[in-house]
Amino acid sequence: HVDHGKSTVIGRMLADTGSLPEGKLEQIRYECERNAKPFEYAFLIDALKDERAQSITIDSARVFFKSPRRHYIIIDAPGHIEFIKNMVTGASRAEAAVLVIDAKEGVQENSRRHGYLLWMLGIRQIVVVINKMDLVDYDQAVFEAVQAEYAAFLEEIGVQPLCYIPVSGREGDNIAALNGRMAWYDGPTVLSALDSFQKAPQPVEKPFRMPVQDVYKFTMTGDDRRIIAGTVQSGKLDAGDTVVFYPSGKRSTVKQFETFAALTPERVSSGQAASFTMGEQIYVKRGDLACKEGEPRPFVSRKLRGSLFWLGKQPLTPRKEYILKLGTNRVRARIETIHRVIDAAELANTDKDIIEHHDVAEVTFAFNHAIAFDDPALCPDTGRFVLVDNYEIWGGGIVLDVVPDEEAALREGTFEREQRWIRSAVQQSQRVERFSQRPTLILITGKRHTGRKRVASALEARLFGDGRTVYYLGVGSIMYGVSADLKKREFPNDWHEHLRRIAELTHILLDAGLIVIMTAVELTQDDLKVLTTVLDSDRIEAIWVGDEMTTDLKYDLRIESDFEEASAATRIKSLLQEHGVIFSG
Ligand code: GTP
Ligand code: MG
Q1: Burial class (CB in 10 A: 0-12, 13-18, 19+), 130
Q2: Is the Cβ atom of 115 under 6 angstroms away from ligand 1?
Q3: Residue 230, ligand 1, Cβ within 6 A
Q4: 214-250: per-residue pLDDT in tens?
Q5: This prediction's pTM
Q6: What is the distance between the terminal CA atoms of the chain, rounded to a whole angstrom?
Q7: What is the reported pLDDT for 281?
């Protein structure tokens, strides 16, 4: 909590362990004297911060410190509620935490809130320091009362601190050495408690996870290779390994790691930035999660249940859409259900159905499209998220669980298909080059009798005339052929299966390198979700024909009902050029 003495404790520890630059302490004392200001150990932190700030930009004070056992970076977080965002930012980079409570003031709102946030951020090594014991005459009973109160709180959230230490930052008791004023205490000092923290094991033994940061294309003509770049968050990857990218489940092999250095590594492991080329060029984009075949898979869904804290001035509401960032993903997210809202300072369940400034809540998010994520215990980086509104981070949280979405079963099928797909010796990229086109499904939809089929035919004729390899497939043609065993679309389950078959059939045609034009009546966003589960979402262009929008479909282009066939075809063609589907002509 604000003013409980965090900076003082750190300053004192630096001073008592001889960690300060030569003459620093004297200099600050002298400056205080000259300005008739009482000396504060906390000033040491500010002084160091200023020094460092000259060369780098920092948002919260970082202090470098060395004990006989190891080196430390101490992040001095602010205690004021207005700066809780800085506290969270600082804490999210920490491996262990020291919570400071003023013995005289006792447990305050932010003592609890910070405790809760530490738990949420996955920090499990915590020491509680009860400071300003000099103000309570070093009374054991006061120490024990504060300890009991805070222990009861931590127990509720399932946190077990390593120890509670009574100290006086100002007087230097029990910081770097035990001293006689609290003869009743014989536990560790702050310094020895820090040294008892365990270094988190490097997550190399965990499953491989690398959120794709960028995909670079070689620019030389005829070179279709792509470099997949990112930072390995856990596990390791060797040249020759099979990588699986989620949410699509597409796979390829690691051909070679690329580096600017002379030596090309044979392996990359957690913490390293990595770039590699693939054996087979597949379509991968930023936000995809690279995993390794044969290792536990991440969760893939359009929905997840998470625990979050909200720092926005405006309440977090199910009515609004936010940007959720997870790994290298940025996805539009909406709250589907608020399970509970918790007052983090009191740790009480409230009966609110909105999430306000400083609240903590458990919610189910629904995204615009499926993403891959993990249990934070397995991989913290892909198990945590932040919420963005208007380019600012207003909240963050952790994944509690995956929530199956409507496409879950279908997606499983797609993963299996990808795994078992019998690969052609002709690469997709060779087909792209041969046909001068990127295989794409062009969906032409709208109300009945608006001329969808006329648009489709005009487009097919135009593209065919240009030399493109294009095929018009009416949904009706599939209905009475491939799907002849199914009933009509009046039956929702059958429609779903029918769509699945259309999607699988299209998948084959796209794999063969074709541009497929398809017409269907009044496709909805739900229909599109089925298609994008089976096919790459950016292999689909949706076109709505007609003045009236009768479904929730998010289309790429709309053609008014009084269209002229030639100009409709021209407009779609420019769209395809703009989206890089066709390259010339
Ligand atoms: P914020 O960063 O603003 O949240 O505060 P903080 O927790 O870093 O507190 P800081 O170290 O700045 O100390 C706040 C006040 O408490 C200062 O005036 C300190 O001198 C005083 N203080 C800190 N530790 C002790 C202590 O052990 N005993 C007494 N008597 N005063 C202390
Ligand atoms: Mg401070």
Answers
A1: buried
A2: no
A3: no
A4: 999 876 666 677 899 999 999 999 999 999 999 999 9
A5: 0.80
A6: 67
A7: 83
